[in-house]
Design brief:
heterodimer, A: mainly beta, Deoxyuridine 5'-Triphosphate Nucleotidohydrolase, Chain A, two-stranded antiparallel sheet, 4 helices, 11 strands, about 15% helix, B: mainly beta, 8-stranded antiparallel sheet, about 0% helix
Chain lengths: ~200, ~100
C-alpha cells in the first residue's frame, strides 16, 4: 500500500519514516504555493556534491570479481561541490552521481506488524528534458538509513543546469506487511563473497 | 547499551564526503569492497589521506563453528549485503548506535 500525503505526515510524526531535514511546508501556505508533498509522494532535493566518473581508459571493471573497486572508483572520479553561483552543467549523454540533501531512515521495529519501504522516482518535470535520476536502483529497503545516491544521465539534447536544493526526485513510501526477518535463507542465491557459510558447505560433494 | 559487532577492514576516502571506501576480506581471504557512510566506520587514522586500518559496524545473522555470517551497512560490489567471515575478524564493544 502506498502512503498518501496524510499518511506520510503521520509516519513522520511517529518516526516510522525519518526525512532530515524534513521537507516543508506540509501544505501550501498560499493558494498555489510551493509544497513538496504531492498526493502520495514527497520531493527530495539535490545536495551540493556531484561525482563525475572519469573515463581515462586505464582499466576495465570485471563485474564478476570487482575486488577493491570502491577505491578505484574514488580515484577515477572528480568531486565537484556545486552552489547557486557555480552550478553543474550536465551535458547530453553524461553520467554523474548525485545525492539527496535529505537523509532517509526507515526503522524496523521488531514488535510492529508492519514497516516501511520506499522507492525513489524521477519527476515528470525533469523527465521532459531527458533527465534520469535513477535507472536501476530505486528501492529503499526497510532498515535503510542515509542519503540516497542518484545515478543521473542527461538523455536530452540540451545541457541541464543543476543547482543544490533543486527538487530532483520524489520518494514514494510503501507499507511492508509483517516485520522482515534478516536470516541467511535470504541470501542463499548469492555466489561470491556474500552468502551463508552453512549453505556453502552443503554444496560440497 | 547494546553490544556492537565490528568487522576489521581497511578504509580510505569515499566518492562522497559522507562515505568511506571500505576493503574487507571474507573467510577465504577473498576481497570485497563497498562504500559505507562514515557513521558506521571507526578508522585508526585519517582515511582522507590514504589507506588506514578500521573497523566497520556489522550485524551477525548466523554462526557455524568459527564462521559468522554478517550483514554489512552497505551493499558490496560483489552483489550483496552479507559476507561470511571468521570469528577472529570481529570484535565487540558497548559503543553507541550510529547517529
Amino acid at each position: 500500500m502506498i502512503l498518501s500525503n496524510r499518511q506520510l505526515h503521520a509516519a513522520l510524526d511517529e518516526k516510522r519514516l525519518v526525512i532530515h531535514p524534513e521537507p516543508t511546508p506540509r501544505a501550501p501556505e498560499t493558494p498555489g504555493g510551493h509544497c513538496p508533498y504531492d498526493t502520495h509522494s514527497v520531493d527530495l532535493t539535490l545536495s551540493e556534491e556531484i561525482i563525475v566518473p572519469q573515463d581515462e581508459g586505464l582499466f576495465d571493471i570485471d563485474l564478476s570479481r570487482p575486488g577493491n573497486i570502491a577505491k578505484h572508483l574514488e580515484q577515477h572520479s572528480k568531486h565537484e561541490r556545486i552552489s547557486e553561483d557555480r552550478p553543474y552543467i550536465l551535458r547530453h549523454g553524461r553520467f554523474i552521481l548525485g545525492k539527496t540533501r535529505e537523509r532517509i531512515a526507515l526503522p524496523i521495529d521488531p514488535n510492529a506488524e508492519t514497516c516501511l519501504a520506499a522507492r525513489i522516482e524521477g519527476k515528470s518535470s525533469r523527465a521532459r528534458f531527458g533527465l534520469l535520476v535513477h535507472f536501476t536502483a530505486p528501492t529503499v529497503h526497510p532498515g535503510f538509513q542515509g542519503n540516497l545516491t542518484l545515478e543521473m544521465i542527461n538523455l536530452g539534447p540540451w545541457p541541464l543546469v543543476l543547482k543544490p536544493g533543486l527538487p530532483i526526485a520524489q520518494l514514494i513510501v510503501e507499507e511492508v506487511r509483517g516485520c522482515p526477518i534478516e536470516n541467511p535463507s535470504q541470501f542463499q542465491a548469492q555466489s561470491t563473497a556474500a552468502g551463508s557459510a552453512k549453505r556453502r558447505r552443503k554444496r560440497k560433494p | 547499551m547494546e553490544k556492537q559487532l565490528w568487522l576489521r577492514c581497511v578504509a580510505s576516502k569515499g566518492q562522497f564526503s559522507s562515505e568511506l571506501a571500505i576493503l574487507g576480506q571474507d573467510y577465504r581471504g577473498e576481497e570485497f569492497s563497498l562504500f559505507v557512510e562514515r557513521d558506521f566506520v571507526e578508522p585508526e587514522g585519517d582515511p582522507d589521506l590514504g589507506d588506514v586500518s578500521a573497523r566497520m559496524r556489522v550485524k551477525a545473522l548466523d554462526r557455524a563453528g568459527d564462521l559468522v555470517l554478517v550483514r554489512l551497512p552497505g551493499e558490496t560490489f560483489s552483489n550483496g549485503y552479507t559476507v561470511t567471515v571468521k570469528q577472529d575478524q570481529l570484535t565487540e564493544s558497548l559503543d553507541r548506535e550510529p547517529a
